[in-house]
Amino acid sequence: MVKSRFTTADVAAEVACLKRKIEGYRITNVYDVNSKVYLLKLHKSGGMDGETQKEVLVLESGTRFHLSKYSRDKSNTPSNFCLKLRKHVRTKRIEKVEQVGIDRIVDFTIGSGPARHHLILELYSQGNVILTDGDYKVLTLLRSHRDDANEFAIMANHPYPIDRSRTRTQVTPESVAEAAKANAGGTLRALVGKALPYGNQIAEHCVLLAGRDPKAPVEAELPEEEAAHIAAKINEVEEMLAFCGAEVPKGYIFVKGGGDAAKPEGDGDQDTEPRVYDIFEPFLTRQSESKPHQCYETFDEAVDEFYSSAECQKQEVAKHQEKKQIASKLDKIKNDQDARITSLRNQALSTNKKAQLIEYNLESVDAAINAVNEALASGFDWKELDQMIQSEKEAGNPVASLVSSLQLDRNAITLRLENNLDDPEEEGEGGSRRGKLSVQVDLGMTAHANARALYQQRKKHEAKESKTVQASQRALKQAEKQASTQMKKLKVTAKPGFKVARKQYWFEKFDWFVSSENYLVVSGRDAQQNELLVKRYLTTHDVYVHADIHGAASCVVRNRVGGGPIPPTTLLEAGSFCVCHSQAWNSKFTTGSWWVHSSQVSKTAPSGEYLSTGSFMIRGKKNFLQPTQLLMGFTVLFKLDEESVEAHLGERACRSVEEAETVADAAAA
Description:
Oligomer: single chain
Strand order of the largest sheet: 22-23-25-24-26-29
Number of strands: 29
Largest sheet: 6 strands, antiparallel
Distance between the termini: 73 Å
Structural class: alpha+beta
Strand content: 15-25%
Helix content: 25-40%
């Protein structure tokens, strides 16, 4: 059975991954996918290259929690519970992620001081998502329930029973020996499973590490050495599951079905059984080492891949079953048509053989017909006639021995005929040609007439066979066409599952374009973005472009390291871009722009003056560009696969100076 929810070991591994990943991140917003799945959008400023790092945390009540690189459709209207979560945790920082004891409960500490909250995710039973204040008083929750037997309730305005969680205890040889006495006759796996709260997989792993058979019966008096050995292995596994080391726990997904486990999911044969993820584990257990599996750098990546691909894999299995049904239906139609044609062909062959046998035995057949007709004309009763034929057979009458049965109600008799003309050694279809065959003849016709009637009947069978073959071909073509249409429909309607969320580049928050010579040109959308663009992204090799008109944005042309001077065509395009984003666009008049090196741009104002946000001091000579037309376009960019990059090398290359001057003159005209 496919694994569907986290075990205690999975919770410990995922908490270890998240502690190293999202502690210190702020919650940008909270979304709900459905009534049980919630998305926490996280961000952290000051990451690599000064960029904001973004993550998406998936929480599913009673099932799982992990970061995800896949995009998911969110609910159009947030639920009341989602709105309450937004009210209390949005913009706050995740201070701590920890597992509550050894239970399947995760505690996210959000905020600090008086504004501290706890977001608690329960992964057992029906699950729950609970928001409490800093003192674990429940503010809102997904579902309320109470346990009168244990005298506690999980409800709004009630304290959350955080102190009731199970804690990890050291397993001793004495406790193992006592458990063996209490579970005498059971299996070792069940014995260890009661001592460990990590599930049967981990319990079986411990028994195998101890060198014992997991299905071996437990002795009431377990030897001290064996009890000590089992206890040592249990404690060893528990220490490993604490995940206290510096390394992030790896993830393993075990697969079943067709295809190679090492291949990506889309590389298998279309007709083979689709490969389906079976279970995921934070480490390789002893009993699963030889099974086909995929290894991931972190357990979080493995869980994300497992759950995000589960829906797509279900669709693949269903599509495979539908394909098999379509193919089976087509094969059934083919078999039915073949059976009809074969039946008609056999009938024609049988009729032809009967007619030939009559011709081989003309005199005998006429003699049998005449003898029966004479007896009937003499007034013999049907029963008396049958008795007389039997008596004649016993007396050795050759004509009577040909008669097999009488069908006088249909004015016919059945004769047993054989081929007496061919060589006895020759054999035909199905054995000796001298074998007798039952042939029904009409008493109202001679032997010749009966043979002629059978030949006519054979022609009818052959004509019917010919028509059936033609109809069968048309029916098969129609069935194949219908099956092909259904197959295409399956491909069209099959959903690809979750798509990998595209990571946005740093320049996408600004206005930007790629010049015809493959240079990135970026401009700010407002004063704050102008300030950010120049302070953070203007480097030594770049060029600053601006225009002396109200509303003109600060524009930066990003140069390659050691790439030399920016070509004139790119500078002209950047100047036009700068002017088009100014007041000149609305006023419908054109003006010139200018560019300077990055070293000429400064935020230091002259003595006694002040530079507002988004304004900069330019020192030295400005290089003015020719006025251009106010033209802008819309472009769609496609990201190339690695295999296609070589085919596009050399495109959008820098033009020569002569070409650039020609383009500039044409633009100015």
